[in-house]
């Protein structure tokens, strides 16, 4: 079984033989929940691609773990980079989408307030929902042993999504309706580097106006398969398909 991952604020200045402290909520989880013992392996990360493997020296109190570091893996910025624009699902299905996309390997997630979204992020409620998405990405990144966690941006409007699509090397809107000229994502010509941006619409679908806006920005409509996936699972399935096709899962 691979060593558990814990997040630290910084790994600047560490080297072979350095001793690091894991404290706060991460230290409490390591000491009081995981009950790690001297001699067990752990990995520390800043979530930005830097890691430090080490061995537990001791626990102090209920929330401080002392680790001696010996190896320093680096997770480079992947290419092509995959960003999923995720329409806001209702209930806790947004966190489900973030969790599974993070575990799969997505690089960035953009919450999108689509016209047909039942859920709308406004005021304090929106800030709390965004914080939950970011916390979910962080925890899923740790669970999946990632050193580079996906960025979860501020919520975007349709115009902001269009601007993001216009800069992409490959831009796609997932759409199940063949009447809109959707092509199979499985056979699309993909770039070997740069940025791939996928748009996942809400349960009610992407409106014709949104499709037109995104098409003007250079995005085409693509479908995944014969079955229609929910908004909370479509991004994960599409990410997995692209990771396989681009060689990032090779």
Automatic annotation (TrEMBL):
Pfam families hit by this protein: Methyltrans_RNA, PUA_4
Single Gene Ontology MF annotation: methyltransferase activity
Enzyme class: transferase
Localization (cell): Cytoplasm
Domain Ribosomal RNA small subunit methyltransferase E methyltransferase positions: 79-242
Superkingdom classification of source: Bacteria
Keywords from the UniProt entry: Cytoplasm, Methyltransferase, rRNA processing, S-adenosyl-L-methionine, Transferase
Main localisation: cytoplasm
Ribosomal RNA small subunit methyltransferase E PUA-like domain mapped to chain residues: 22-68
Function text: Specifically methylates the N3 position of the uracil ring of uridine 1498 (m3U1498) in 16S rRNA. Acts on the fully assembled 30S ribosomal subunit.
Entry's family note: Belongs to the RNA methyltransferase RsmE family.
Protein name as it appears in the record: Ribosomal RNA small subunit methyltransferase E
